[in-house]
């Protein structure tokens, strides 16, 4: 399939991402945030861009996965980070499967309210059972074990960034394979016209439940990565602002293609850091202004600017190979 083939800008994109390990040795902390935010945005794009499911409460799975990873480490149940990451992702996946039956009912407006309600409900439950979750103070005293028993998290964040980047790349490969499979094509057919998809024999509800459950797994893994790299899990993981920021990331990057969430995460975090440095109290105002500018100038033009460096690197490699 043509869309499943790797192109030179894609290869250059990931080479540039890996090159950040050497290019920005003093920026590992923000690079780590970009990595898990990109995975979080990828999870939302799976349901919004490919399945057409609008969600304002996607932070429910992010926060749930984060708390699962934190509790597993805090109580010594699973000390190995990779195994704890998988367990946290599967727990969020189970939550996504259970709640998917509620989300599938009704129209887009109903789905907006249901997803938002689920996130708010989980936040209040986490706050109520403060003896387990730490309440408004969050989980305290989380100590992470070395990854695979070999790589210890360092204070500079280098190991954490490499860890997040590897997980992001592996799950990106999986998502890429899925969206280009017959299953992914059927999900896109449902997004374009559910009635037509049902008429040709596609099980609409089962496909939507499956992609929603998969997206919950991705969001749970992103939340677990955030907890493991910061040694902190708090109620902010369930907050509406988390879901709103995620929606901005996906809008900035674009929906319906996997790199949209990745590009949006890079742009959003860089703009957030820039505006927070200039005006710490009003950085959200400037983010909104940038969003308006994107609408005016067109996202395609912005993407050409963002992808200029990977394309330049790809051209350099092709010239070198030809020589």
Automatic annotation (TrEMBL):
Protein's membrane topology: Multi-pass membrane protein
Superkingdom, taxonomy of origin: Bacteria
InterPro entries reported in the protein's UniProt record: ABC_transp_permease, LivM-like
CDD domains: TM_PBP1_LivM_like
Pfam families, sorted: BPD_transp_2
Transmembrane segments: 12-29, 83-103, 147-175, 208-225, 246-270, 282-298
Family annotation (PANTHER family): ABC TRANSPORTER ATP-BINDING PROTEIN, HIGH-AFFINITY BRANCHED-CHAIN AMINO ACID TRANSPORT SYSTEM PERMEASE
Protein name per the record: Branched-chain amino acid ABC transporter permease
Source species taxonomy: Bacteria, Pseudomonadati, Pseudomonadota, Alphaproteobacteria, Hyphomicrobiales
């Amino acid at each position: 399939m043509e869309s499943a083939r790797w192109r030179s800008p894609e290869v250059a994109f990931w080479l540039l991402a890996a090159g950040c390990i050497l290019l920005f040795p003093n920026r590992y902390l923000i690079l780590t945030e970009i990595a898990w935010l990109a995975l979080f945005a990828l999870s939302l794009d799976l349901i919004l861009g490919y399945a057409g499911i609008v969600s304002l409460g996607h932070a429910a799975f992010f926060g749930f996965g984060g708390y699962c990873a934190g509790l597993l480490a805090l109580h010594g149940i699973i000390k190995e980070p990779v195994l704890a990451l998988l367990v946290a992702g599967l727990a969020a996946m189970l939550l996504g499967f259970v709640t998917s039956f509620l989300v599938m009912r009704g129209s887009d407006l109903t789905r907006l309210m249901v997803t938002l309600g689920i996130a708010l409900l989980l936040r209040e439950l986490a706050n109520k059972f403060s003896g387990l979750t730490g309440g408004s103070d969050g989980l305290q005293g989380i100590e992470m074990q070395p990854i695979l028993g070999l790589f210890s998290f360092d204070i500079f964040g280098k190991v954490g960034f490499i860890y997040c980047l590897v997980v992001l790349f592996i799950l990106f490969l999986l998502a890429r394979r899925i969206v280009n499979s017959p299953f992914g094509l059927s999900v896109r057919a449902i997004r374009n016209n559910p009635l037509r998809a049902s008429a040709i024999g596609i099980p609409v509800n089962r496909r939507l439940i499956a992609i929603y459950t998969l997206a919950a797994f991705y969001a749970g893994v992103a939340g677990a990565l955030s907890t493991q790299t910061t040694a902190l899990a708090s109620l902010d993981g369930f907050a509406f602002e988390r879901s709103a920021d995620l929606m901005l990331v996906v809008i900035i990057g674009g929906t319906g293609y996997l790199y949209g969430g990745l590009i949006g995460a890079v742009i959003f975090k860089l703009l957030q850091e820039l505006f927070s440095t200039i005006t710490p109290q009003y950085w959200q105002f400037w983010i909104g202004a940038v969003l308006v500018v994107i609408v005016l100038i067109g996202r395609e033009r912005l993407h050409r600017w963002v992808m200029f460096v990977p394309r330049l690197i790809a051209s350099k490699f092709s010239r070198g190979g030809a020589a």
